[in-house]
Design brief:
Length: 478
C-alpha cells in the first residue's frame, strides 16, 4: 500500500449508501478511498435508513484522490461477484466488499483462493442473492385486477424477497411481461409497468395485493395435470420451492393432497405403462420441440430461445460446444458467431466437412447477464450442464455418431458427467458406454481470448486435435 496516496491515518469516515442496492455508488466511493489509502477499519458503511448508526464516525468529508493516485485494481471476477453480493441484506456486506477490494491491491489473485474466509463469505452472499432472484423469476404470480388502467386491467403480484433484488430484476419482468400492465409489490419497494414506462414505488404490504382471481383455477388444474408423482422428491421440492413462497402461489394449495396421493398414482401409472411421460423424444424434431419447452433449469427461463443441434442424423462425427452465444441465440443455430467462424476455418484446414458433421451444445439455451443493451455470456454451472445432459444424450441416441469431439470443459462434462482437465484429457480417445469414442479439445472461444504466441500455440494444439480426429474418422470409415 506504500505507493497509494496516504491521508491522515487517524481520521475515520462514514459512508451512507443512498439505496441499499446502489453498487455503483459503493464502487465509486470505494475506489476513491482505496486510492487515498484509507484502511478498511477506518470506514463505516451505513445503510440508507439508519441501520449501523451507532458506529458512525461523524461527517468527515471523504478524501479525494489526485492525479498521482494509482489506479485501483479489481478483477472481473471480483466485480461480478461483488455486484451480486452488494444486494444481500447482510449489513456488513459493503464493509466486506471494501476489505476484499483493499486486499486485492496487494494480492490480485485473491479471488482464486477458495480457502480465504472473505472470499468464501462474498461468494456465499452472491450465491444467496442469485438464488433469491431465481426464486423471484419462478414464483412471482400475477393476479388480475380490473379497471386500473385505460385498457382496463392490471396484474399485481406480491413477493417477499430475502435480499435487495427488486430493482436488479426489473428488466427480467419488463421483457417477460412487456405487453401487460403490472405491479410487483414487496416489503422492500414496488415496481409498476404500464407497457411503456417502469416506475418505482414505496414498500407495500401483503394486504395491498389482491388475494385471488378466476385465473387461479386454471393454474391449479394445469399444475395438477403436469404433476408427475414418479418424479416426486419432497426434500428437493421443498428446497426448490420453500414453503414461504407457497402462500403466494395458487397451485401450491394442491401440493399436500398431491403428495399424499403420489405413491398411489405412481403405482397406477407404472401399472398402466404411463411412465412414457418421461420417455425421450423419438426424433430430432421431437427433441427440438421439447428443448423449446424446457424449464428444467433457470437458463430456460431467461429471455432466450433453445438452439437445437444441426447436421445429418447418422453423422459419423458429433461436435459439442458449451452453449449458444448471443448470435446463435438470434439465429437459432449453433456456432454461427465468432467462435463458429473460427471453428469453420480450423475444420476446413483439417479436411473435416462441417456439412457432414452434427454440431451441437452441452447446454441448449444461452446463459447471459444483461448489461445495458448487451447480453454478456455466463458459463453454465455444473448442475445446469448435468440437467441439460438429458437432451445431449437424446441427440446422441438419435444421431449415433462414431466419434464425438467435445470442445471445452462444459462439453466434456456434458458427455462424461464429471469435470476433467482439458490439457490432461486431450489427444487420447475415451471409450463411451455406447461404443463411440470421445475426443476432447479446447473451445474455440478460448483461442479467441488469447493473442500473440499463446494464441499460436493453442491454435497449433487445436489443429493437432482436429487432425487426430480426422485420421480416426478415416480409420473407422475404412
Ligand atoms: N459457443 C458454443 O459453445 N456454442 C455455440 O453454439 C457458439 C459459441
Amino acid at each position: 500500500m506504500t505507493a497509494l496516496r496516504q491521508v491522515d491515518a487517524d481520521v475515520r469516515y462514514a459512508v451512507r449508501l443512498p439505496e441499499p442496492d446502489d453498487f455503483d455508488f459503493w464502487r465509486d466511493r470505494a475506489r476513491a478511498l482505496v486510492q487515498c489509502g484509507v484502511a478498511p477499519e477506518r470506514i463505516s458503511w451505513l445503510e440508507p435508513h439508519g441501520a449501523g448508526e451507532l458506529f458512525a464516525h461523524g461527517d468527515e468529508p471523504l478524501p479525494v484522490p489526485d492525479a498521482r493516485s494509482r489506479p485501483v485494481r479489481a478483477s472481473r471476477r471480483f466485480i461480478e461477484v461483488a455486484r451480486n453480493a452488494a444486494l444481500h441484506s447482510d449489513p456488513q456486506r459493503f464493509a466486506l466488499l471494501y476489505r476484499l477490494l483493499w486486499r486485492l491491491q496487494s494480492n490480485p489473485a485473491i479471488m482464486d483462493d477458495k480457502a480465504d474466509s472473505d472470499v468464501r463469505r462474498v461468494e456465499d452472499l452472491a450465491k444467496a442473492v442469485r438464488r433469491d432472484s431465481h426464486k423471484m423469476h419462478a414464483f412471482v404470480r400475477f393476479r388480475r385486477i380490473e379497471g386500473d388502467t385505460a385498457g382496463g386491467e392490471r396484474y399485481v403480484a406480491w413477493f417477499e424477497p430475502d435480499h435487495h433484488i427488486l430493482r436488479a430484476n426489473a428488466s427480467f419482468f419488463v421483457r417477460r411481461f412487456a405487453g401487460m400492465a403490472w405491479s410487483i409489490l414487496t416489503p422492500r419497494g414496488s415496481l409498476h409497468w404500464d407497457g411503456e414506462t417502469l416506475e418505482e414505488g414505496p414498500p407495500a404490504q401483503r394486504s395491498d395485493a389482491p388475494a385471488g382471481d378466476p385465473m387461479e383455477e386454471l393454474w391449479r388444474s394445469y399444475y395438477a395435470s403436469i404433476f408427475n408423482p414418479a418424479r416426486l422428491k419432497v426434500g428437493a421440492m421443498l428446497k426448490e420451492m420453500p414453503r414461504k413462497y407457497w402462500k403466494n402461489m395458487p397451485e401450491t394449495a394442491l401440493i399436500p393432497g398431491l403428495v399424499a396421493g403420489a405413491q398411489q398414482r405412481e403405482r397406477t401409472m407404472v401399472a398402466e405403462g404411463a411412465m412414457e411421460f418421461e420417455a425421450r423424444p423419438g426424433s430430432l424434431k421431437g427433441v427440438d420441440e421439447a428443448i423449446h419447452a424446457c424449464h428444467r433449469c433457470p437458463i430456460g427461463s431467461l429471455d432466450n430461445r433453445a438452439v437445437m443441434g444441426e447436421g445429418p442424423k447418422g453423422a459419423a462425427l458429433m461436435i459439442v460446444g458449451e452453449q449458444p452465444g448471443d448470435q446463435e441465440d438470434e439465429a437459432g443455430k449453433p456456432f454461427v458467431g465468432p467462435a463458429g467462424q473460427l471453428l469453420d476455418r480450423h475444420l476446413e484446414k483439417a479436411g473435416i466437412d462441417r456439412g457432414r458433421t452434427y454440431v451441437t451444445n452441452a447446454v441448449k439455451h444461452f446463459k447471459f447477464e444483461p448489461r445495458g443493451k448487451r447480453r454478456l455470456h455466463k458459463s453454465p454451472s455444473a448442475k445446469e450442464i448435468d440437467t441439460c445432459r438429458w437432451w445431449l444424450e437424446s441427440e446422441r441416441e438419435l444421431v449415433r455418431p462414431k466419434l464425438i469431439l467435445a470442445m471445452g470443459g462444459s462439453a466434456a462434462r456434458g458427455l462424461l458427467g464429471k469435470s476433467v482437465s482439458i490439457s490432461k484429457a486431450r489427444g487420447e480417445p475415451i471409450a463411451l458406454e455406447d461404443g463411440s469414442e470421445l475426443w476432447i479439445t479446447a473451445h474455440p472461444s478460448y483461442l479467441l481470448r488469447l493473442d500473440g504466441a499463446a494464441r499460436e500455440e493453442q491454435a497449433r494444439l487445436f489443429d493437432a486435435d482436429l487432425a487426430a480426429v480426422k485420421e480416426r474418422l478415416s480409420e473407422l470409415a475404412a
